[in-house]
């Protein structure tokens, strides 16, 4: 029956599923010397898959790696940045930067800091990030001032973002400081950009 090309590339640690989809759309992936297409299923026991002209197979499957990073402010949560900014991959030891398929699981905004998982386990990345798995994401954020209960309830019910209402969020006050700042814990059920 076979498996989708992007899933196989992810399992082999070549790229995350989303990155593999982009590689397929860019024409960088071939199956039996023919450009692959999204959703195409193959069997590695029968079919030959190549990325950028280099054949890959089950012997190329790297040992699975799991890293937990405290992402600093100013670093982007991506493997490569077209704007030339420092990425989370740039922070890794040189031996882990290339050829291991390590990628961030999810994203933290460039102006955010916090725990970020990096791995070459594409199945785990898919399980943790695909919307159908409903994995909640918990954030602790400092905000200026003291949000009212009415404001917190608006967040709890969902807010409009890019023309669509977000799913309800769990929002709790953790701490309030006299210098007009509040620490909130926010649990999101979706990972929309800029949410």
Give a quick summary of the entry:
This protein is 19% helix and 29% strand. The chain is α+β, with helices and mostly antiparallel strands and 195 residues long.
Textual characterization of the structure:
By secondary structure, the protein is of the alpha+beta class. It has helices spanning 5-11, 17-25, 94-97, 122-129, 149-157, and strands at 3-4, 29-31, 34-35, 41-42, 49-51, 54-56, 66-71, 103-104, 114-119, 137-144, 160-161, 164-165, 170-177, 181-188. The protein has a 4-stranded antiparallel β-sheet. The protein has a 3-stranded antiparallel β-sheet with strand order 7-9-8, with helices on one face. Strands 10-14-13 form a 3-stranded antiparallel β-sheet, with helices on one face. A hairpin with a 2-residue loop joins strand 5 (49-51) and strand 6 (54-56). The model has no long low-confidence stretch (mean pLDDT 87).
